[in-house]
Amino acid sequence: GDPRWGALAGTYSGRVTCGGRIYYVEGRADAQWWVSRDAYNGTELWRVPIEGSGWVPLWGPGNSLACDENWTFATHKKVLTARDGKTGKVVKEYAPGIEARNVSTVDKYLLVSDIAKNIVRNGTIVALDIETGNILWKRPTVTQPPAFEGTAFIITDKELEGVDISSGKSKWKTEIVTGDGYKRIFCKGNVIYVQYLPPYKPVARLV
Fold it and tell me: What are the backbone angles phi and psi of residue 169, rounded to the nearest 5°?
């Protein structure tokens, strides 16, 4: 069933779960804490301070919190860091060559992008090998891509492309037509959804 320990945590955000553990960032008066708990009984396994920066909010790691069956990942002081899920020990630091604002795990890979939330601009997506930290490929993107069965779905201003995560090779691409607003992409199985949000325009108030 669902974990029954929610009342044990205070203000927390960025929850992800893998390998029978749940990871989140907890805000307290003295510091912000990167926390690991047993997902079923709520037992706290470890907690360490986590610090923001000029582009990651001071109260947490932004969208960089991720996990796989063994490790958890987050941006701490602008460095994408991996910790052991059981002990909290730092096991790896990554240098993707971009600001790690968004992070997701796919099999033995990390997908890292520098897209800021709700800011319309082009960015970069980087694929990293989790174990070695090696950069496998880079591509332009306008949002963090989802993935399914080894394929990342990347959108730019005009195209949607399926990219093999292990090699960076294009599997297919198709033209998309949107305006100048925000673009988001989701997938459910092998079905891909692209959402377009027009730019915000203030509404004049007539008195």
Answer: -80, 145
